[in-house]
Amino acid sequence: MGVMQFTDLLLAAEHKNRSLLCVGLDPDPSRLPHAMRNDPDRMYEFCAAVVDATADLAIAFKPQIAYFAAYRAEEQLERLMAHIRVAAPQVPIILDAKRGDIGSTAEQYAKEAFERYGADAVTLSPFMGWDSVQPYLRYPGKGVYLLCRTSNPGGDDLQSQRLASVAGQPLLYEHVARLAQGPWNLTGQVGLVVGATYPAEISRVRDLAPTVPLLIPGVGAQGGDAEATVQAGWRGDAQRTTGSVAINSSRAILYASAEADFADAARRVAEATRQALERAKPSATT
Q: Which has fewest Cβ within 10 Å: 10, 39, 144, 155?
């Protein structure tokens, strides 16, 4: 039996959980529930409880490595990845690392993501070009998401610049989208990160890259509109998804309550978000 492809895992989770919601796991010790607050040693406990509460509601989980590394808590991240495998085996894990380097260094980052942490996919910066992406695609079945049109205002500094040397003079983010749909997508496991705060750009990326999976942060605390995001990025019908999206919400779910009921509160917010995203599908009957 061959290795299951990341894109197949994603589509299976979308179907099983009827969900486009990616639950971001960005544990900030200063924002943990009162009983855990300012105790980095309890980040695993906190995140594991949120995973347990939302395992049947998510298309993916997205732990952000910096929140663990900043507190020397990489071992907790390893434990969390292992816990997700047991608690939600049907839900793929996207390691949000935004790596971007070349040669042997990229090989080490790929080993970190896929061998040490066991991620199904990882976020990357494409700024250093094809050879900074290639080492990750040597891992059978694993996926990568390239930063394309990010949700931060400063993204305009580079992503909206025109490339005079490329035919048609596309904007940089448009060029990245074309590369992900075409020559860089040798394994079929390349996706793009596009921010929910820019629905017009999501639609443009989807036009240029009609079949690649999109990871869309910015719904919830960052103010992205759920309905506009789905309609701009998701493609498919009642039988089949042809352009998948994983729409991430982190803070709105994680910090829904600062009390002992934080996991139940996280579930309520996640379920409400999941339903809103499902209703936004053109063929939705939720």
A: 39
**Secondary structure E strands in the chain:** 21-25, 60-63, 94-99, 121-124, 143-149, 190-194, 214-216, 235-236, 241-243, 245-249
Question: Are the C-beta atoms of 275 and 286 separated by less than 8 Å?
Answer: yes
| Residue 231 included in any domain | yes
Query: What was the pLDDT predicted at 283?
Result: 62
* Domains: count for the chain: 1
Confidence band for 286, pLDDT divided at 50, 70 and 90: very low
For 199, the domain range is 6-280
Whether 1 maps to a domain, the answer reads no
Please give, one letter per residue, the 3-state secondary structure of 130-148.
Answer: HHHCHHHHHCCCCEEEEEE
C-alpha span between 99 and 259 (Å, rounded): 35
In a domain, 286, yes or no: no
Q: Closest Cα partner for 92 from 118, 116, 74, 64? A: 118
Q: Which residues contact 150 (CB under 8 A, 6 or more apart)?
A: 159, 193, 194, 195
Tokens 């719904």 belong to 219
Give the model confidence (pLDDT) of 199-228 as tens digits: 999 999 999 999 999 999 977 655 568 888
Cα–Cα distance between 115 and 81 in angstroms, integer?
A: 12
User: In the structure encoding, which two tokens stand for residue 283, read together?
Assistant: 């063929």
| CATH number reported for the structural domain that contains residue 255 in this entry | 3.20.20.70
Calpha distance 111→3 (Å, rounded): 17
Q: Which residues are catalytic?
A: 98
* pLDDT tops 60 at residue 154: yes
Tell whether the model's pLDDT for residue 271 goes beyond 50.
yes
